[in-house]
Amino acid sequence: MAQIPFDLKHADFARLAEVGLRLPGLREVKTLTQTSWIEAPTTIIGTVVSGAELQVGAFCSLSGGTLNNVHIGRYSSIAAGTIIGVHEHPTSWLTTSRTSYWPQVYGWDELIAPDRAAEIRAGKRPFTRSCPITEIGHDVWIGQGCFIKSGVRIGHGSVIGARATVTKDVPPYSIVLGTPGRVVRTRVPEPLIERLLAVEWWRYSIYDLFAAPFDDVARALDVIEDRIAEGAIKPYEAPLVTPADLAEPLGLAARLAARFPRPLARAS
């Protein structure tokens, strides 16, 4: 996957934070894949791996941990210490070592076999399951210190309890606890899950939905469904930020300032 380089400075992070993009998790990142994007506003405090595929929806609070090769829907929350996107190793090959499929790791091929390094790289066997994309749906809450295996899909509305280990796909609106992680129950009854998935409330700005009683899911859905049917609310069209935009932070900040003209306090 082609990589897009950028080099955000301290002043750039502060400037972008004022217009809804808090991105301290990108401080050590110098490239992302060309298919990466971030919707505004959102907050990424967790450490992003340089070179990763990263797609993050609006209104996310990614408060910590490590993020690599992951797609995250809107309104999702990830607590500190969570690990997503750890590289897998080929357990059925001669060796599990990364050198078997990535001979240039740490530059060792050029150190040990400088005359044959190019030939070795050209003949390497790909290991396509090294770090598949992890899919995290909309409105997902992942508690502190979880481990999410690469390539797992976590359905919309799910909750992953603190310290859980998730190695399998998680159905929508499930609550997962333990190691290995297991579904202990659903967040809401099945009929409400069907309505939640049908209405896709996350397509909208939550600030257009505050007439709904959030603490009563059935009644909240009644209000949201009525407002959608009446045309009283429109889907939220989030500003989309690409790695190419991050390479031009002044222009990006100006574009976001035009959309969000009232700057946020830098300490918020």
UniProtKB/TrEMBL annotation:
GO terms assigned for molecular function: transferase activity
Signal peptide start and end residues: none
Gene3D superfamilies cross-referenced by the UniProt entry: Hexapeptide repeat proteins
Record keywords, A-Z: Transferase
PANTHER family: SIALIC ACID SYNTHASE-RELATED (PTHR23416)
Official protein name in the record: Acetyl transferase, Isoleucine patch superfamily
Organism of provenance: Cereibacter sphaeroides (strain ATCC 17023 / DSM 158 / JCM 6121 / CCUG 31486 / LMG 2827 / NBRC 12203 / NCIMB 8253 / ATH 2.4.1.) (Rhodobacter sphaeroides)
